[in-house]
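Re: folding output
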Amino acid sequence: MSPQVSYAYYPGCSLHASSADYDASVVAVSRVLGIELAEVPDWTCCGSTPAHNIDSRLSAALCARNLVQVRKMGRDQVTSPCPSCVANLRTADMKMAHKDFAESTNRLLDEPYSGGVTAKSFLQIVYEDIGPQALKELVRKPLAGLKVAAYYGCLTTRPTHVMAFDSEENPVSMDKLLEACGAKPLEFSFKTECCGASMAVPKKEAATTLSGKILELAELIGAEAVVVACPLCQMNLDLRRGQIAAATGQYSPLPVFYFTQLIGLALGLSKEELGIAKLCVSPAKALEKMAAKTPPPEQPERPAKEI
């Protein structure tokens, strides 16, 4: 499909390392949806997540340098699949609007940032620029009523004055996109609860306890998969499954997909293109259920043979 919308693309550190499958699925889905992504040249870490706790100006400078790179591309909009990166970029842009802060922060940069770049999450541009209805029209292999718990985490829509997207307490964007692909999003009251985020490094028990509760509730409501839009959430819920089981005494078999992976499957993309094999908890059972429920493609009617 020819591009409908175009953004500078800031993948962030996770998507070029531990979450390479997220990056692969974002790029693959973008091609089908007509979203042109131009990767920011020579991008660097935005400081997510701890930098602002140490030095607010250094944190802003790390982000501002990347925003300068976006400006040098001749663009004023950038997208990142990582909510933490988006929050950092948006916060830096807001802080740099204050003269004194901008002057002291720009002294840390080779090139000053003068503002004017808007950062959005990839979830936001799929929901707002493409939309559920247009997505539905492109579906080739519906998700066959797969029951999902859409988990947004605590950063995708928070804080409201920074992220300016969806509802702070009851976001629905991911639910509606998944529904357009044929899935069945369930009422999930933990959709914005914290999974422990980066606290998993200094305090592993925080992540195992909080992530365990999220998985437990997802199972209780009958979900067949958890769906996320954050690389850190996916890591805590998927990669740490053994640690969660050791801490809680219960092992959850639920797979944790990136929302782009399920959208990609519905668009007819292959598991290889979407990095499905990189998931730690096997999604085989969920994929088998979808395959069993999906009707076979209609065969063209053949003319009757002449006798």
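--- second protein (sequence, then structure) ---
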Amino acid sequence: MSPRLTTIYTKSGDSGSSALANGEKISKNHLRLEVIGTIDELNSLLGLALSYGLPAPLPKIIPQIQNELFELGADLATKKTTDANRIHEQHIQTLENIVDNINAKLGPLQNFILPGGTTTASFLHLARTVCRRAERTAVALAQSEVLPLFTLPYLNRLSDALFMLARWVNFKNNQTETYWQPKDTD
């Protein structure tokens, strides 16, 4: 028996709507799809950073985060707001542990740094800004709809973790961080 051939296109979105995992149809410009799409964009950026090579332990951390982002997207697409959510408090704790572990090795940040450094670190800084956009959009959605419980804390911690991962990449590559030089206002 030969496998059934399927196509990637369904044509169901040609009218400007999309179906959530629970079957509900919403406009493609709905804030919920904007959050899900921005999380997908973030996930792609992490894949790009990973493809450039990362120092240990990031080759294990980044795919785990990518899987969690798929889980978060699934929670948002199914509109689950109960304990059945895939993202839980322990995911946030794991991100906090990443931040704390790297911070202990690098020492506290004394100045604001400019995003940049190595190519990989720059991709992680870009991923951080996309994560912040996902968070802002999720906050806007939360003003009119109930979100899965840990959506906002997870995105908030993830952006912090991505900042620290970018710093770690620069550190491991002996790349000096560039500090913000505020303009004198006198």
